[in-house]
Structure formats: structure tokens, C-alpha cells
Write a structure and sequence with these properties.
With 733 residues, this protein is α+β, with helices and mostly antiparallel strands.
Length: 733
């Protein structure tokens, strides 16, 4: 919990608190002074004593302003601002932040004005209080269009001073702790916006303790039954695992003692919300997640981290591809640690995180660590998390300046808020982190706007590479530029970073209207495939223009060129049933797409015979999923994102499709050759293969094979099952 953020500080607070200046009579005579004492003890432990009187003064003013007000629980309202200030104090934020936290509700809920706050505490505190007050008026409902402008205001308030969002995160944390006193409908609304907005922001800023607490409290309020069931199962599993955990922990301690390396070794407990998300997203059973035993080794310096990594790999067998170095290449939110996956005694899977004391505290406090230096009279030291946050905020400022549409701005922020990062190298070895799905165009704009604007090609690992193909982590990318080159409107359908998309749109908006018309016409014609724009029925065309609230065809072309309309969706509206039938007759294996481009989802790899459904992805057409795929479970919440499709079995039976198989086997010489032969005899071929170790006796082989339909797949599985020492085989989900 957040209360433990300073649990590793070595300074004793008792002696410091004893020397803290005595509060004024005005402070101690306050009727709610006893609520304030714990906060005062915390700030005395790290702030200069000369600043304590200012915090006392803020408490007295807040207590008088909120006099007579009650919370939903019936407690005095002053408890809430004191709790918010305490959370920030435990994160060691500066005096202005603590004062603003005590006063964050006075302008909105009491007789005090912004001018009163400015007169008593200065302009910085006034701006912080004003920023948080604006945020308190916001409500979020799944980022819908009606709420986009409010979300925009929140992000812009954070851009001006990031302490605004830190105060708001602390405010939300205390509100979530006491959410049980609210009506059920209000509880669920607040819990949902906490999980969808505030927890991701805390994660993006590297403040893991607040992020974890918000997720746990949010799940408990939004899904109370699931939370109770999982919590009970976790407690039971932890009790059953105590002996194994202790044995592994003692083995690690003994090995480090042998080589004289001092360390703190902790059993790392999995959080309930994290377990729930893995079960939902990866379609895993509870036992699959709790079977992994996780530990954290905390050391004094970076060099020792790498020495301990070697010791752990000598003590336990490392898993292939199970090592990640987040010290050399930190995560996008500044997180640093070494992660390694090992095979422990009796085949028990083990995960170990190795980091320094400083990295451990930074993983909890993230960007908030920046301000603890300011009160010591020295220049603030920028941590990795702080540098990443500053770069993110700079990107938000650029995005704000280059987008005229609120919706575009929000979409860009959402992309950056949920970063599944890949790491791309320049030929000189410099590292750039980009979101998953990023293309060479995204990389070009990340390096410099001018490089993106004049990009004509890319070399990936010294080979020519399409500009619109997604990159993979670890690739080396060289961008080829030309002074005469200009951004291509087609890049909008593949670029994923907010910076690239906004810069491309900004350039397109600078084109003359006539050029935009030509670009838009070409994009729409590509989406229509064989049907000519001039052959479209005028009545149908006028109807579509009316639906889009566009006055004429020229304006439609311009909107498409500027990225305001997706060509594939416009083309879909302009297709008739006859057009669709014509497309089907050309040999497409999927019917019901109405001419939209489509791809097959890599998560479930559907094949003919599976019940399928199409997810509508802006800018990318349709993605065909197995109807039982765990990644589309939100269909009931937003059916507008999906459309019904079916297999055209007459066409599909003549084509090959890919699907995945998971095989567990006892390893022996020649078994891979026999499995390959069984696939070949069944009339299939292996497209990809990788292996892993399940335990000391069992290996796991993941195959991607070609199939014609479900019957063909059953025949392949039957032949592989017949290979000796194959234990189980099933289709990957």
C-alpha cells in the first residue's frame, strides 16, 4: 500500500520529529488537531523545519474552511485533505504539494477563493489548487466523445505542472479507500474510471505503489464477487506454498552468503488484479499463474546485480528467452531491474527480479522522487522516470499544438497511456522505445520530425523494409531520406504513434485543397477496389454524404486526405449488395465484409469451420477472430465494434490457413524429426516452431502449421499423437 512507500529509508524519524518546531497555539487548539499529528510527524522527517510552519498554517486554514462539513461516512471532512497530503508526504513531495493537497477542495467547496490562497501561500500553490479543482469536476465514461474535452483539460493541467496529477492521484487513492460509503452505481462509475484512467497514468509516471493500490481497490469495487473469490484463492494458495517458498528463499540466501554478497531477499507476491488480467487476457487458469514462484533480490549497486544474476543462473537452470535487462534498457516509465526465469527444484518455475535499493524505491515512487531533492537545498536530480515523464509531457505539448481535433488529441494520449513498448536501435546504437505495432515511419518521426517528413525508405538489419510493416523489438533501423520527399497520406493507416500521426495530418492540412482532393480520391478508389467512383449511383452517394454531414464530393475527398474519415469505412457505405457479391465471386474466403480489407487475428488464428466474428479496427479494416477468442470478450459492452462474417467454404477449401499447436513431450533423440514427418504425411507443413522447458522431464513445442479446415487439423493432431513420447497435444488459443 501507499503507506509503505518510505519503508526502505534508513533515517530514523523519531529523533527528527523530536526536534521539529512546536506547533503554534492556533494549530494545537484546532478541534481536529489529533487527525493532523501523523501528517506533521511525516513532514518533519524530511522537510526543512523552516517550512513546517507553512504546512501548519495550511492545515488551520483548511480546517476552518471545512468546519461543519462531513464525508459520506459521517466523519469530519478535514480527514480527507489530511489523508491526501499524507500520501504525498510519504512520497516525499515538496512543501507546495503538501500545502496544495491540504487546500485542494477549499476553492470548490468553501468560502475561500483562489485569491485568498494566492495571498496566503503564493502563486505556485494557487495554480496547483486551481488545476486540481478543475480535475475534480471531470467525469469519465469510457473516453466517449462527450467526455473528450474534459479529458483534454486534465492532460493539459498535468502538462503545466505534473504535481497537479500527483495530487489528483493521491486524492483518488484516498477516495477509493473509502468508496464503500457511496451508492452502488456511483461506486462502479468511480471504480471504472479509476481502472481506465488514473491507474494507467500512475503506471505511465512509474508510481507503482499507487498504480497497484488503485487497481486492487478498483477491482474490489467494480467486480466485488470476482475479487473476493480470487482473494480467497490467493490466500489459500500462499498458505500451501509457504514451505516451497521458504526453501527456495533459503537456497538463494545460502548461495549469496557463500560469495559474501549482502542482499535483501523477498518473496514477491502477485497482486489480485494482475492475476485477474492475466487470466482474462491470456486465457489462463488460476493454477497456471500461481504455479510460478517469484522473488526479488535487492542489492547495493548495479555491478553486484549482474554478479548475482550469474549466481542465480548457476544455482537454478535458466529458461530459454527468459532473461530481460531493464537496467541497461529501462521500461518506458523508467522502471529498472533484471528479470530472469528459472527452473527450480522439482521443475518449479521461478521468476527473480534483481535490482538496487535505489531502483526499488524508484519503482515505487517513479516521477514523484524528483521533488524530494528540492527541499534539501540542492538541484533536483532527474531520475530515469523523471526524464521519461518530461519527454512524454513534451510529446503531449507537441501533440496539443499540432491537433485541432479534441478526439485526435485524446486518441494520441490513449496510445501513449498504455505502452506495450518495443525497443528499436539506430545504426549508431541509440535506443528508442515505441509502442507495439510501430512502423519505420513512427521510428523516423521519433528520431526527428524532419526525418519523418522526408522519409522515402528504411533498412532494417541492413535489408530494405516496407515503411508500413510493424517493427519488432531489437531491430536496427536506418531511415533513408530525400529532400524532395513528402509525407504520404497512406501512412495514416499504419502509423501508431501520436507524434507521427499528428505530424502527417499537420502536413496534409497544409496542402492546397486541390492536392487534398487528388489524394483523397486516390485513397477512396483504392478502398473501393474494382468499383469506379464515377460509377456510384448518385442517390447512394448523396445519401452517404448526408449521413457524414458533408456538402459535396470534393469535401469528402479532402476529409479523407486529412485523415478525418477512414477510406475503408466510406467505401463500405458506398458498396451495394451487388458489389459485395461481385467481390465474393472473385474468390474471397470470407463473406459479409462488404468490401472492407481484412486480416486474420494472430491471437486465435481462425480456420474454416470455426465460428468467426470481425472486429472493426479504424484505419486497418477488419480483423477476423475466432468467436471464442478471449481478446474480444468486450463484444457485449460495445457491439458496434464488431460485425458478423462467415466462411465461404467453397473458396476457403482451396486455400491454406495457419493455426497453432502446443505439444508436451518427453524429450528424446529424433522426436522432432518424427513430428515433422507426421505433419508432412498429413498434408501440412510447419511454418514456425519454438520450444520451452515445462519441468525437468517435460518439454513444450509450439508449432504453427498450415491447414485447410478443422477436419484437416484433426487429422494432423491424430498423426502427431501417434508419435511415441508425445504426452499431450492441443490447439493453441
Amino acid at each position: 500500500m501507499v503507506q509503505n512507500l518510505n519503508k526502505y529509508t534508513s533515517t530514523s524519524t523519531e529523533n527528527i520529529v523530536d526536534k521539529c518546531p512546536a506547533p503554534s497555539p492556533e494549530t494545537t487548539e484546532s478541534i481536529n488537531y489529533h487527525y493532523y499529528i501523523p501528517l506533521r510527524d511525516i513532514v518533519c522527517s524530511y522537510l526543512p523545519f523552516s517550512r513546517i510552519a507553512e504546512i501548519d498554517k495550511a492545515f488551520v486554514l483548511a480546517d476552518r474552511a471545512h468546519d461543519g462539513q462531513k464525508r459520506a461516512s459521517g466523519e469530519p471532512y478535514i480527514i480527507h485533505p489530511i489523508a491526501v497530503a499524507s500520501i504525498l508526504a510519504q512520497m516525499k513531495l515538496d512543501t507546495e504539494s503538501v500545502v496544495a493537497a491540504l487546500l485542494h477542495d477549499v476553492v470548490e467547496d468553501t468560502f475561500l477563493t483562489e485569491d485568498d490562497v494566492k495571498r496566503e501561500f503564493g502563486n505556485v500553490v494557487k495554480e496547483l489548487v486551481y488545476g486540481v479543482t478543475k480535475l475534480d469536476k471531470l467525469r469519465f465514461h469510457d473516453y466517449r466523445e462527450a467526455q473528450a474535452e474534459n479529458f483534454r483539460k486534465m492532460i493539459l493541467a498535468m502538462i503545466q505542472d505534473i504535481r497537479v496529477i500527483l495530487i489528483k492521484l493521491a486524492d483518488r487513492t484516498h477516495n477509493m479507500r473509502t468508496i464503500g460509503n457511496l451508492r452502488p452505481d456511483k461506486r462502479k462509475r468511480i471504480a471504472r474510471e479509476t481502472l481506465e484512467v488514473f491507474a494507467p497514468i500512475a503506471n505511465r509516471l512509474g508510481i507503482s505503489e499507487i498504480k497497484v493500490e488503485l487497481e486492487e481497490l478498483g477491482m474490489a469495487a467494480l467486480y466485488p464477487m470476482r475479487y473476493r473469490v480470487l482473494k480467497s484463492a490467493v490466500i489459500k494458495a500462499r498458505n500451501n506454498r509457504k514451505e516451497i517458498v521458504n526453501n527456495i528463499q533459503e537456497s538463494i540466501k545460502a548461495r549469496l552468503a557463500e560469495v559474501h554478497i549482502p542482499a535483501r531477499i523477498l518473496g514477491r507476491e502477485k497482486r489480485i488484479y494482475s492475476i485477474y488480467k492475466k487470466m482474462v487476457n491470456k486465457d489462463l487458469q488460476f493454477r497456471d499463474i500461481m504455479d510460478v514462484y517469484a522473488f526479488r533480490v535487492i542489492l547495493n549497486d548495479v555491478d553486484t546485480c549482474y554478479r548475482v544474476l550469474g549466481q542465480m543462473h548457476n544455482l537454478f537452470k535458466p529458461r530459454p528467452d527468459g532473461f530481460k535487462d531493464y537496467i541497461a534498457i529501462p521500461k518506458i516509465n523508467g522502471y529498472q531491474s533484471l528479470h530472469t526465469s528459472l527452473v527450480g527444484p522439482h521443475g518449479v518455475p521461478i521468476e527473480i527480479q534483481i535490482r538496487t535499493e535505489f531502483m526499488d524505491q524508484m519503482s515505487e515512487r517513479g516521477v514523484a522522487a524528483h521533488w524530494s531533492y528540492k527541499e534539501k537545498g540542492s538541484e533536483p536530480t532527474s531520475t530515469t522516470a523523471q526524464k521519461n515523464a518530461q519527454r512524454w509531457i513534451k510529446n503531449l505539448i507537441d501533440l496539443q499544438q499540432s491537433t485541432s481535433s479534441t478526439t485526435d488529441f485524446i486518441e494520441g494520449v490513449k496510445t501513449d497511456l498504455f505502452p506495450d513498448a518495443i525497443y528499436i536501435f539506430t545504426p549508431e546504437g541509440k535506443i528508442y522505445d515505441l509502442p507495439v505495432g510501430a512502423t519505420p515511419v513512427d521510428f523516423a518521426y521519433a528520431v526527428h520530425t524532419d526525418i519523418g517528413q522526408h522519409c522515402v525508405g528504411a533498412r532494417v538489419n541492413h535489408r530494405m523494409y516496407p515503411l508500413t510493416r510493424p517493427l519488432e523489438s531489437g531491430q536496427s533501423v536506418e531511415i533513408i531520406t530525400s529532400e524532395s520527399a513528402e509525407p504520404n497520406a497512406l501512412w495514416l493507416s499504419s502509423a501508431v504513434t501520436s507524434k507521427a500521426r499528428s505530424k502527417i495530418r499537420q502536413y496534409l492540412k497544409g496542402l492546397r485543397t486541390q492536392e487534398c482532393e487528388l489524394v483523397g480520391r486516390r485513397l477512396l478508389q483504392n478502398a473501393l477496389k474494382t468499383k469506379k467512383i464515377d460509377q456510384i449511383d448518385p442517390e447512394l452517394l448523396n445519401s452517404v454524404l448526408k449521413d457524414f454531414k458533408i456538402q459535396d464530393l470534393s469535401t469528402l475527398f479532402v476529409d479523407i486526405a486529412l485523415g478525418n474519415l477512414i477510406p475503408a469505412l466510406v467505401a463500405k457505405r458506398l458498396q451495394t449488395d451487388t458489389d459485395v457479391q461481385h467481390l465474393l465471386e472473385e474468390g474471397l474466403p470470407i463473406s459479409g465484409t462488404r468490401g472492407l480489407p481484412y486480416t486474420f487475428a494472430q491471437c486465435c488464428l481462425p480456420i474454416p469451420g470455426d465460428r468467426i466474428i470481425a472486429h472493426i479496427t479504424p484505419g486497418k479494416g477488419l480483423v477476423i477472430h475466432n468467436a471464442n477468442c478471449s481478446n474480444i470478450r468486450d463484444i457485449k459492452r460495445d457491439p458496434s465494434k464488431f460485425t458478423s462474417v462467415e466462411w465461404d467454404l467453397a473458396v476457403a477449401s482451396n486455400l491454406d490457413f495457419q493455426t497453432g499447436l502446443r505439444i508436451e513431450l518427453e524429450n528424446r533423440q529424433g522426436i522432432l524429426s518424427e513430428i515433422s514427418n507426421a505433419v508432412d504425411v498429413a498434408g501440412s507443413r510447419i511454418e514456425a516452431i519454438n520450444s520451452d522447458i515445462k519441468d525437468e522431464h517435460t518439454y513444450v513445442i509450439n508449432l504453427t502449421v498450415t491447414v485447410r479446415d478443422r477436419l484437416h487439423l484433426a487429422n494432423i493432431i491424430k498423426r502427431i499423437k501417434a508419435v511415441p513420447n508425445v504426452l499431450t497435444i492441443f490447439r493453441r488459443k
